[in-house]
Specification:
Number of strands: 9
Shape: elongated
Radius of gyration: 34 Å
Helix content: 40-55%
Distance between the termini: 136 Å
Strand content: 15-25%
């Protein structure tokens, strides 16, 4: 019995250490791309899957994001990446295909994906440094690769707010794209082994029920944390359209409109009846009344 317990403990420690060296990957596109992956996959097999999906050149713009120093626990915080979550979970109706790999063993080389897109699709590359807070806006429809590099997260407790800022920057970049056909490959690298305590600290802030089932420079540094907190307190997803967020036509409003139309119809009939009355002016003359007629007959 003691040997069984000791073996189970050793296995759990081994698995915990194994998942410390993994990080998630997110993929979403406005085009139909038949691609799926398990929750745990190696970087080599995942790179092969992504290469096969990108060889058909399904989009006009390809955004390859690199976020070092994170793990899956960071994105379970509901304040960390609300816009990324809306695109991954299907809340955003523009997204037609997406998948998430919670634990990627190894690191995916973004340069390999860039090379495939340059060779197969003839796309030009545009590098963006998110630390500067600026993005060169383009207005042509040529195939393009946007390489978006975020700085590594710090080891302090403001990791969720930093991820929220990066999420807002990515959302702004997508809003400024000239073509609605885009594909985003959000790659990450695991936390350095020098800071293993981050896993324990961030796991205590778990707040979700489950994991993720020619240029003019514009300043894109925005504070999206306030908006995220407001939407979470109200219980309404801020990314939904207006007529899905609120109910404008309730039974009470329908009954009120029906009664209002009925009263307007009655008012119209009454005004029409009064205005159709015709009385001659002589009917109000005293000399032409009934008494005057009797006098004339006598």
């Amino acid at each position: 019995m003691y040997l069984t317990q000791l073996g189970a403990l050793a296995l759990s420690v081994y698995l915990a250490n194994a998942f410390q060296n993994t990080s998630p990957l997110f993929f979403f596109s406005t085009s139909e791309i038949l691609a799926s992956s398990p929750q745990i996959a190696s970087a080599a097999s995942l790179s092969e899957t992504l290469t096969k999906s990108l060889e058909r050149c399904p989009s006009d713009t390809y955004v390859i994001v690199s976020q070092p120093g994170v793990n899956a626990v960071d994105y379970r915080n509901r304040h960390a990446a609300p816009y990324l979550k809306s695109r991954i979970t299907g809340t955003n109706r523009d997204i037609r295909s997406s998948f998430t790999v919670t634990d990627v063993v190894g690191e995916i080389d973004p340069n390999q994906l860039v090379s495939v897109l340059e060779t197969q699709c003839g796309a030009g590359i545009l590098s963006v440094d998110a630390s500067t807070g600026s993005f060169p806006v383009v207005d042509d429809m040529k195939p393009r690769i946007i390489s978006l590099d975020f700085p590594s997260l710090s080891t302090t407790h403001d990791r969720a707010s930093k991820l929220s800022e990066n999420d807002g920057f990515l959302s702004s970049v997508l809003d400024l794209l000239p073509s609605p056909k885009y594909t985003v490959i959000y790659t990450t690298t695991p936390i350095s082994s020098d800071h293993p305590q981050i896993l324990i600290q961030e796991s205590q802030t778990y707040e979700m029920d489950s994991a993720f089932p020619s240029a003019v420079h514009i300043d894109l540094k925005r504070d999206y944390s306030i908006q995220g907190r407001a939407s979470n307190h109200s219980g309404v997803d801020s990314s939904l359209p207006l007529f899905e967020k609120y109910q404008f036509f309730t039974p009470g409003i329908f009954m009120g409109l029906l009664v209002g139309f009925l009263l307007l119809a009655i008012l119209y009939v009454g005004i029409s009846g009064v205005s159709s009355l015709q009385v001659s002016y002589a009917a109000f003359d005293k000399e032409n009344g009934p008494a005057a007629q009797k006098k004339q007959q006598q």
